[in-house]
Amino acid sequence: MKHIVYLHGFASSPDSSKARYFQHRLEAAGHTVSVPDLEEGNFDGLTISRQLEVTRHAAGEGKISLIGSSMGGYLAALYAARHAEVERVVLLAPAFAFARRWPLRLGPEVTEKWQKSGRLEVFHYGEGRNRAIGYQLLEDGLLYEDFPAVKQPCLIFHGALDDVVPASFSQEFAAGRTNVELHVLDAGHDLLNVLQVMGDRTEAFLQ
User: Fold this and answer.
1) Could you give phi then psi for residue 55, rounded to 5 degrees?
2) pLDDT at 1
3) Closest C-alpha among 144, 159, 154 to residue 197
4) Are 86 and 77 in contact (CB under 8 A)?
5) DSSP string, 137-198
């Protein structure tokens, strides 16, 4: 049985639907599953670096497997590329090229305003309300590569209808990597309509 760390997405929480689903299912299969709060109560000061540190503490010593959703998927890939003790990686709509994509999605005016004011209002799904996020998230994110060099066996699920992180980013990541198994599913970014499909394949993959 494996020690698994599940990394939730941006503006989400350990209580997200996918986190609960995978934790309950994989614990029922005999695995140990940790779901850390990547924000640690400080959403406005969030950075990629700080989330990787939270991941390190949650991983502890010894072999682990990682599951990550959206930004958590990008974090899982970054962490696996830097830690050989990670055995297997499952990525759900991973937010590859995070720091490069966000300014393009927001547009130059919003990005410039964010940089000048230091704060951007976003909807926090975990709390069900708007929250401010600091510009340091983008500044710190630019320190990291778009597509981490993951060497471990890697299973990716991405929605063909994803309008937050296009599936083309996972396809670009998977191209030429024999260790990566990519499934593009009939789903949007949340992938909630394909939980059973992902759960079945993930459970087999982690065995």
Assistant:
1) -60, -40
2) 85
3) 159
4) no
5) HHHHHTTS-SS----S-EEEEEETT-SSS-HHHHHHHHTT-TTEEEEEES--TT-GGGHHHH
Burial (0-12, 13-18, 19+ Cβ within 10 Å), 200: exposed
> Residue 150: what residue type?
V
| Contacts (Cβ under 8 Å, ≥6 apart) of 53 | none
The pLDDT tens digits of the residues spanning 150-207 come to 999 999 999 999 999 999 999 999 999 999 999 999 999 999 999 999 999 999 999 8
Q: Identify residue 19 by its one-letter amino acid code.
A: A
132, two tokens: 């401010």
Number of H helices, E strands in the chain: 8, 8
Q: How far apart are CA 98 and CA 5, in angstroms?
A: 21
Q: What is the pLDDT of residues 38-56, one digit of tens each?
A: 999 999 999 999 999 999 9
Q: What spatial distance separates the first Cα and last Cα of the chain, rounded to whole Å?
A: 8
> In this model, does residue 89 exceed pLDDT 90?
yes
| Predicted confidence (pLDDT) per residue in 128-143, tens digit | 999 999 999 999 999 9
SS3 96: coil
CA–CA distance, 63 with 192 (Å, rounded to integer): 29
Q: Which residue has tokens 């140990």?
A: 32
Inter-residue contact 141 to 133 (CB < 8 Å)? no
d(Cα 131, Cα 151) in Å, to the nearest integer? 36
What type of residue sits at position 127? E
